[in-house]
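Q: What structure does this chain adopt?
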Amino acid sequence: MADQEPSTSEQVHADIPGWGVDGDPRNRPGVPMLLKPEPRGGAHWERPERQPPPDFPVLKRAELDELTPAFGTAVPPKGLSGVLRSVAYSIPENRVQHVMLLLMADRVDVLESRLLRSPVKSLGAVLGLVGGGWLLSRLRT
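A:
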C-alpha cells in the first residue's frame, strides 16, 4: 500500500474549509440568529404609517387588536366563502377549526366562481353534490 488512508475524521476533513459545528463563531452563519435581535435605528418613524381602511371588511387574526400597518385589499371577502372566512378568522390560528374552515372556504369559493362563469354547466356539479344530478340529466333529454 503506497498511500496511507487517514485514520481520524479530523484528518479526513482537514482540507474542507469551515468543516465542523465547533468552528470559529465569526464564520458560522447561524450565530447571528443565536444572538438577541436589537433595533438597528435610522428609521424616520416610531410606528409605521397606517394604511387607510377600505370600505369593505378586512379579515385579521383573532389575536390582533387592530389591523397590521399594511394589508391586502385585492380580493375582498364575498359570498358564502367570505362568511366562512370571517368565521375562521374569529377562531385562533392554533385551532384546527381555523384551518379547516379556511380550506372549506377555498372549496366554496371555487364553486361560487364556477357558478358565476357558467351557471348551466356548474349546476350539474352542484346538484350532484346534493344528490340532484339525476334531475339535471332528465331535464337535458
